[in-house]
Amino acid sequence: MYHLNENDREYRFGDSGPKYLMKGPRSNFALVQFMPGQDFPNHYHNIMEENFYMIEGELEFIINGELIVAKQGDFIHVEPKEHHYVRNASNHPAKMTSSLAPYQEIDKVEAPLEENLKMKEAK
Prior knowledge:
By secondary structure, this protein is mainly beta. 8% of the residues lie in helices and 49% in strands.
């Protein structure tokens, strides 16, 4: 059993980024907040799949070259090796959950955004 209040954790970058409520041993779960104009670099995971659920606001995802504008209530699933980039292009904060499984301590591979954008052309 595991119990925690989100106020017991902090966002990675003060007022934004991931706030991990659980890391391992089989999965992780985080609240993620983006302030206007903030983004998270394009990357992919070799082993882990990632799920996002929008709590509030609006975020732009580019997944394998496809733009998805996610709003409150939207769920996004990303398979291993799928490139994904996230940014808050709005004038308001945005918040979502993120979960990754099976948990790996090191599995994020950063890649140039251009690689992500080219994936749509290759389809």
